[in-house]
């Protein structure tokens, strides 16, 4: 297929998919979205000129288009949409669907079920409250979960292409298990130190801050992701040390102590215990969970500082800060509040580091009318001397180190680090005028402490020193240690630039991060977690729900935000638990072991596998390889899906062979022997699942080992599916592993964790309104006078304007008016015709363009920048980057145009667009998006793969590409 045709097909695909997926979701749910229908009509109409419509060959282009649009021809509503806008497309899709190979593929994919619902349930749908997979699943009739269902009710057939070599491997693995160390145990004896000749793995997760309880996003972003990997490494025989602890110094601790009427140390003790309890309940397998308020932390941190100072990597400078004379102290960011300095905001309680109203970052000395948070006194600006890490002097060494080390980092970590380093590093202040922190040992600075982000990463080292006196074998041994760091993306700059620069600046032989693993954010339902507003589930609350910890682990790892932000949903948790865990995973375990217990007096029968059994083993080995590769590369979602694929294979195997019928007394000896073999192989597959499930669901894996009458000590991960349970091995009676989550439970928790309802506003006080109006009039006059004087500076005018805007905002709030809505309507122009009806303002979701454009040149320039941002996820152009983020540019463009903010539909389409873009390689150029290898990423993630049709897969139509060249998502 020619490159231009591929590019055009890709363009058509991108046009369709952002609208198509949510539209089909609405159709499947029985509530067709008319707005999306209208939008899709325009898109489908644009496909009339598509060249693939006249191409009768089955090609890569036709694969993409057909698999994307297939559901449209299976529903009356969407059929009419097609006929209205593109009759040629109807003919094309119908002719494609009539081909024998494609018919067979569709039949295998969805069986007798609905093509539309099968497509939508498995497609990647934008996170939108009204067009989500969750809403669709919620609308479908729930499958009864009270009894064990048959595999055909829940598992689609699993077919795998098995080569002769894979079949031979499967036979060898089963008949010669001793060669594969199937019965080796995982041995762990502490303290763990590096061992010569072994694969020594040091794992840290970002130290959780001690001022609050961790929420689900904190847990999956750091400690749970690291735990999953640590457990996997132990399974494969690595020598692993997993270290974490609470980060206890800094302003936030002092602020929390003031809020709760405790000392900082009491706050640290209280929340360290809470964190420890939460992580223990979640099954986080730290080798040691420590804290930073220790003597080791002080000594190691100060030793590192002295090395930096000796090597000339520390500089001194003065910084203007707010000083409270009444409290006799400099005010750190969190100890000062005031009026937000940004025009149009004027929020009166903005903090010294950020405004909660507009979300912008603030320098404390920029606040209008600042006040001390402790005594409310107005502070003064004073100069304070501080110490700086001289990053420009270390920049060359850092760049050389990054050029080799960062290749193995997650993509978002590399991107964030690149943006910091690209424009050159600046000196960074590493001291603060606080009392609670690691004291600075240098004369003249002993009244200060180290800044928390200089101090905190050193906590990994000091916590290890509290664990073992041989800590240097881990931290000053780069040739023998592979170091993995886990964190959320907001911690990346400090771990990719500041901490490595600190290590390099000492000139010592430090173990530095080899693999920096960063996640995106986990949101809660349609918003963010908030302790103050009661939104979202926090660790201590998860314990109280009664839902087992392994279910939480399973679901959080299932939607781990690896490439883009994801969202926790109660309905989705219920769906995944009841379908994937109960009906698939738990169903297979219970069925397989129940047959052993019922028909063979709890003893594993002898297995005499035939060719079909070895085919099964080869298919399992494929998934086992996917599992191992995924986890080794920290694609933990893919690893979990490999486990679920194996249990689906097991369910299908039992369903196809029906061993419970073959072993009945009235059957022949040959049939009974066959039934026994199937049951024995299924039981061994259960044993394999108990091993590979441990990184995800350790308690469930332990329970399965209990059913199998095995030691609680975990078995090493085998390279292939082998005989783990010899004939005659006795098992225990299996019990249900997974509990159904019902609608009542979901509704209760959705309401409980939805947040506090806003309190009703009191009626505005007329006297207060009059007072504010008088203040506004006075302040307006003051601003006018300053502007007319011609002598006032811009800063003086801006300060007074900010106060004026703040007063107007307060008045609007009292009157119940949205300040963003603007003032009173302008008077009609002369000659406008008093009797004429005024034109209605289009709603926010309207696509109507504004009547006038304030500055056409600026609009054109900004539109070009927005387009360029959309095309390039990684911005190589510094001029574009300096213009701001894509969202910033869009906001400016809207302002210049005078348009209203985008409405619901526009937001949904924007979300869908970002989902599509995020699934592409981050560094791919626009031209690369059109390549066949990338094209495969954009096919709906449905499991409906036409790539296996002869003549496409590996054929000339794809330019002879091999399977491994088509990346799986």
UniProtKB/TrEMBL annotation:
<comment type="similarity">
    <text>Belongs to the class-I aminoacyl-tRNA synthetase family.</text>
</comment>
<dbReference type="InterPro" id="IPR015413">
    <property type="entry name" value="Methionyl/Leucyl_tRNA_Synth"/>
</dbReference>
<dbReference type="Pfam" id="PF09334">
    <property type="entry name" value="tRNA-synt_1g"/>
</dbReference>
<dbReference type="GO" id="GO:0017101">
    <property type="term" value="C:aminoacyl-tRNA synthetase multienzyme complex"/>
</dbReference>
<dbReference type="InterPro" id="IPR014758">
    <property type="entry name" value="Met-tRNA_synth"/>
</dbReference>
<keyword id="KW-0067">ATP-binding</keyword>
<dbReference type="GO" id="GO:0005524">
    <property type="term" value="F:ATP binding"/>
</dbReference>
<dbReference type="InterPro" id="IPR033911">
    <property type="entry name" value="MetRS_core"/>
</dbReference>
<dbReference type="InterPro" id="IPR000738">
    <property type="entry name" value="WHEP-TRS_dom"/>
</dbReference>
<dbReference type="InterPro" id="IPR009080">
    <property type="entry name" value="tRNAsynth_Ia_anticodon-bd"/>
</dbReference>
<dbReference type="Pfam" id="PF19303">
    <property type="entry name" value="Anticodon_3"/>
</dbReference>
<dbReference type="InterPro" id="IPR041872">
    <property type="entry name" value="Anticodon_Met"/>
</dbReference>
<keyword id="KW-0963">Cytoplasm</keyword>
<protein>
    <recommendedName>
        <fullName>Methionine--tRNA ligase, cytoplasmic</fullName>
        <ecNumber>6.1.1.10</ecNumber>
    </recommendedName>
</protein>
<dbReference type="InterPro" id="IPR029038">
    <property type="entry name" value="MetRS_Zn"/>
</dbReference>
<dbReference type="InterPro" id="IPR009068">
    <property type="entry name" value="uS15_NS1_RNA-bd_sf"/>
</dbReference>
<feature type="region of interest" description="Disordered">
    <location>
        <begin position="820"/>
        <end position="849"/>
    </location>
</feature>
<keyword id="KW-0648">Protein biosynthesis</keyword>
<feature type="domain" description="WHEP-TRS">
    <location>
        <begin position="768"/>
        <end position="825"/>
    </location>
</feature>
<dbReference type="InterPro" id="IPR014729">
    <property type="entry name" value="Rossmann-like_a/b/a_fold"/>
</dbReference>
<dbReference type="GO" id="GO:0006431">
    <property type="term" value="P:methionyl-tRNA aminoacylation"/>
</dbReference>
<keyword id="KW-0436">Ligase</keyword>
<dbReference type="InterPro" id="IPR001412">
    <property type="entry name" value="aa-tRNA-synth_I_CS"/>
</dbReference>
<dbReference type="GO" id="GO:0005829">
    <property type="term" value="C:cytosol"/>
</dbReference>
<keyword id="KW-0030">Aminoacyl-tRNA synthetase</keyword>
<keyword id="KW-0547">Nucleotide-binding</keyword>
<dbReference type="Pfam" id="PF00458">
    <property type="entry name" value="WHEP-TRS"/>
</dbReference>
<dbReference type="InterPro" id="IPR023458">
    <property type="entry name" value="Met-tRNA_ligase_1"/>
</dbReference>
<dbReference type="GO" id="GO:0004825">
    <property type="term" value="F:methionine-tRNA ligase activity"/>
</dbReference>
């Amino acid at each position: 297929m020619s490159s231009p045709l591929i590019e055009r097909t890709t363009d058509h695909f991108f046009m369709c998919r952002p609208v198509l997926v949510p539209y089909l979701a609405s159709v499947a749910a029985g509530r067709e979205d008319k707005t999306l229908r209208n939008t899709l009509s325009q898109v489908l109409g644009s496909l009339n000129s598509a060249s693939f419509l006249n191409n009768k060959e089955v090609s890569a282009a036709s694969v993409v288009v057909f698999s994307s649009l297939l559901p449209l021809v299976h529903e009356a509503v969407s059929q009419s949409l097609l006929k209205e806008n593109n009759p040629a497309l109807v003919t094309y899709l119908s002719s494609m669907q009539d081909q024998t190979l494609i018919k067979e593929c569709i039949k295998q994919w969805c069986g007798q079920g609905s093509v539309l619902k099968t497509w939508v349930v498995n497609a990647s749908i934008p996170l939108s409250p009204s067009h989500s997979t969750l809403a669709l699943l919620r609308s479908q009739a729930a499958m009864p979960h009270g009894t064990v269902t048959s595999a055909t009710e829940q598992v689609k057939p699993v077919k795998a292409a098995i080569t002769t070599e894979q079949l031979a491997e499967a036979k060898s693995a089963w008949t010669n298990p001793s060669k594969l160390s199937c019965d080796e145990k995982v041995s762990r004896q502490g303290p763990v130190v590096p061992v010569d000749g072994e694969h020594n793995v040091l794992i840290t997760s970002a130290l959780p801050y001690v001022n609050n309880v961790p929420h689900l996003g904190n847990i999956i972003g750091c400690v749970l992701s690291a735990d999953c990997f640590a457990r996997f490494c132990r399974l494969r025989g690595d020598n692993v040390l997993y270290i974490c602890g609470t980060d206890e110094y800094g302003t936030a601790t002092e602020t929390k102590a003031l809020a709760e009427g405790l000392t900082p140390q009491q706050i640290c003790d209280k929340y360290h215990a809470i964190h420890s309890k939460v992580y223990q309940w979640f099954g986080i397998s730290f080798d040691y969970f420590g804290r930073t308020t220790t003597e080791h932390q002080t000594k190691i941190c100060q030793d590192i500082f002295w090395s930096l100072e000796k090597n000339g990597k520390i500089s001194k400078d003065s910084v203007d800060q707010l000083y409270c004379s009444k409290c006799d102290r400099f005010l750190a960011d969190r100890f000062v509040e005031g009026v937000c300095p940004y025009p149009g905001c004027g929020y009166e309680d903005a903090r010294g580091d950020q405004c909660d109203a507009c979300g912008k970052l603030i320098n404390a000395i920029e606040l209008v009318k600042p006040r001390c948070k402790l005594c409310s006194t107005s502070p003064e600006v004073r100069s304070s001397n501080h110490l700086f890490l001289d990053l420009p002097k270390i920049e060359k060494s850092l760049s050389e180190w990054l050029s080799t080390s960062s290749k193995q980092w997650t993509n978002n970590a590399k991107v964030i680090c690149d943006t910091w380093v690209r424009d050159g590093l600046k000196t960074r202040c590493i001291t603060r005028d606080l009392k609670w922190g690691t004291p600075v040992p240098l004369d003249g600075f002993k009244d200060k402490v180290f800044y928390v982000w200089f101090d905190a990463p050193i906590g990994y080292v000091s916590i290890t020193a509290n664990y073992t006196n041989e800590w240097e074998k881990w931290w000053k041994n780069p040739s023998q240690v592979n170091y993995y760091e886990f964190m959320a993306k907001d911690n990346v700059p400090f771990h990719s630039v500041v901490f490595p620069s600190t290590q390099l600046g000492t000139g010592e032989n430090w173990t530095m991060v080899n693999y920096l693993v960063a996640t995106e954010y986990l949101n809660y339902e349609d918003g963010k977690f908030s302790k103050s507003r009661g939104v979202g589930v926090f660790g201590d609350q998860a314990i109280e729900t009664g839902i087992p910890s392994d279910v939480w682990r399973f679901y959080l790892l299932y939607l781990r935000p690896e490439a883009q932000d994801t969202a926790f949903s109660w309905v989705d948790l219920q769906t995944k638990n009841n379908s994937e865990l109960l009906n698939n995973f738990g169903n297979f375990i219970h069925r397989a072991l129940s047959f052993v217990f019922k028909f063979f007096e709890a003893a594993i029968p002898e297995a005499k596998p035939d060719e079909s059994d070895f085919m099964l083993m080869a298919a399992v080995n494929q998934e086992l390889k996917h599992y191992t590769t995924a986890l080794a590369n920290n694609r933990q979602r893919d690893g979990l899906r490999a486990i679920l694929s194996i249990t689906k294979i097991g369910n299908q195997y039992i369903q196809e062979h029906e061993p419970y019928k073959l072993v009945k007394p009235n059957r022949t000896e040959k049939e009974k022997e066959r039934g026994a073999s199937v049951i024995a192989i299924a039981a061994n597959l259960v044993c394999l699942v108990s091993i590979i499930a441990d990184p995800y669901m350790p308690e469930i894996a332990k329970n399965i080992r209990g059913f199998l009458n095995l030691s609680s000590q975990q078995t090493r991960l085998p390279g292939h599916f082998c005989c783990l349970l010899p004939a005659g091995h006795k098992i225990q009676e299996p019990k249900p592993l997974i509990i159904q989550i019902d609608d009542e439970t979901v509704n209760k928790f959705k309401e409980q964790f939805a947040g506090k309802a806003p309190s009703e506003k009191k009626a505005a006080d007329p006297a207060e309104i009059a007072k504010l109006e008088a203040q506004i009039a006075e302040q307006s006059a003051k601003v006018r006078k300053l502007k007319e004087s011609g002598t006032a500076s811009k800063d003086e005018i801006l300060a007074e304007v900010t106060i004026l805007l703040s007063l107007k905002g307060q008045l609007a709030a009292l009157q119940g008016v949205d300040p963003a809505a603007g003032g009173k309507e302008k008077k009609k122009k002369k000659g406008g015709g008093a009797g004429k009806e005024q034109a209605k303002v289009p709603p926010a979701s309207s696509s109507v363009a504004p009547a006038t454009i304030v500055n056409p040149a600026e609009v054109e320039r900004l539109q070009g920048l927005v387009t360029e941002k959309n095309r390039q996820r990684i911005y190589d152009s510094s001029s574009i980057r300096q213009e701001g983020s894509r969202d910033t540019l869009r906001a400016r463009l809207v302002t210049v145009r005078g348009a209203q903010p985008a409405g619901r539909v526009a937001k949904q389409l924007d979300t869908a667009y970002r989902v599509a873009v995020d699934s592409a390689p981050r560094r791919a150029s626009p031209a690369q998006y059109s390549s066949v290898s990338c094209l495969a990423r954009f096919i709906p993630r449905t499991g409906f793969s036409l790539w296996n049709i002869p003549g496409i897969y590996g054929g000339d139509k794809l330019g002879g590409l091999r399977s491994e060249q088509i990346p799986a998502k």
